[in-house]
Design a protein that fits this description.
The protein has eleven helices and nine strands. The protein has 310 residues and is α/β, with parallel strands linked by helices. It has a five-stranded parallel sheet with strand order 7-6-5-8-9, sandwiched between helices. A four-stranded parallel sheet has the order 2-1-3-4. Helix 2 links the parallel strand 1 and strand 2. The N and C termini lie close together (12 Å).
Length: 310
């Protein structure tokens, strides 16, 4: 296996080869050991300056990246668009070029527009990591989800993973589909027909609108929240109606003739797409996903900084 990534930036899972994903997950294994020991820091990115550039609200992803950066001993700058010159009309390129003039090496960016990370990578001289662009991709979430499945089940090859919920507006769903298929898993989606894009059939994804059938099919279920902030029209009658047909609860899990792994990228709308009993129950690896997120983001930062994975 190559010890260097084939890409300069992490813009989306679509751009990665299977070997790149394997290398990231293998490197994340090493960093998982690091963050579970008494001294959790390594000097790998000392003298590297990283800016977290968030044009959308985020708590979990921003904190996970910031912790990953600090665990690697990088110098970290946090930039929030709402309190910056962007709110006064400054362009994205001007903003980033001003930051790069301060000798920043890497930019971690979340932006509400699909393609923003790619746009930036073509115009500024810095390593760009996409922390979510609109409803397009969220590559590090897909990588940490894959890492969590591998930790729990030992392998991803041949496993069946069902993604349930608001597929239409989810950047997590698309990145997960690309990532899991490249790792040899079968991927399905489930939700109201109005929230399932038609193009998924072309990607070789199994589409199911009945949640119980979907759960019986899979080894792993990844529950997504309804993204009301990205919906300009109403896609289903009410939250109550959605909950009736698509909520993951103990009754649905107990009706299965097998045990499945339960995931959620967060934030969780408890009582809507998933009940607290399930989210906090023995099937759930939701907190493992949070831990995996730091290790995977450390791996991505380390490899993109041009260091070989020894």
């Amino acid at each position: 296996m190559s010890k260097m990534l084939r890409v300069k930036h992490l813009l989306g899972i679509k751009d990665l080869h299977r070997e790149d994903i394997d290398l990231i997950l293998q490197t994340a294994d090493t960093f998982l050991d690091v963050i579970n020991r008494p001294i959790k820091k390594v000097p790998s990115l000392r003298d590297t300056t990283i800016v977290n550039l968030f044009f959308e609200n985020s708590t979990r992803t921003r904190l996970s990246f910031e912790l990953a950066e600090k665990r690697l001993s990088a110098d970290v700058l946090n930039f929030t668009a709402s309190s910056s010159s962007v709110s006064k009309g400054e362009t994205l390129v001007d903003t980033v070029n001003n930051i790069l003039a301060m000798k920043v090496d890497m930019v971690v960016m979340r932006h509400p527009q699909a393609g923003a990370a790619k746009f930036l990578s073509e115009r500024v001289d810095s390593v760009i990591i996409n922390a979510g662009d609109g409803a397009h991709e969220h590559p590090t979430q897909a990588l940490l989800d894959a890492f969590s499945i591998k930790r729990k089940l030992g392998t991803i090859e041949g496993k069946r993973v069902m993604i349930v919920g608001d597929i239409l507006h989810s950047r997590v769903a698309l990145s997960n589909i690309f990532c899991l298929q490249k790792l040899g898993a079968e991927v399905g989606v489930c939700g109201p027909p109005t929230l399932i894009p038609r193009y998924l059939n072309e990607l070789g994804v199994y589409v199911e609108t009945n949640l119980q059938k979907a759960l019986q099919w899979c080894d792993v279920v990844n529950m997504l929240r309804i993204q009301l902030e990205r919906q300009d029209i109403q896609y289903f009658p009410s939250n109550r109606e959605y909950t009736k047909h698509y909520q993951l609860n103990d009754n649905r899990l107990n009706a299965l003739d097998k045990k499945i792994v339960v995931m959620h990228p967060g934030p969780i709308n408890r009582g809507i797409e998933i009940t607290s009993d399930v989210a906090d129950g023995p099937h759930s690896v939701i907190l493992d996903q949070v831990e995996s997120g730091v290790a995977v983001r450390m791996a991505v930062l380390y490899l993109l900084a041009g260091r070989s994975a020894d």
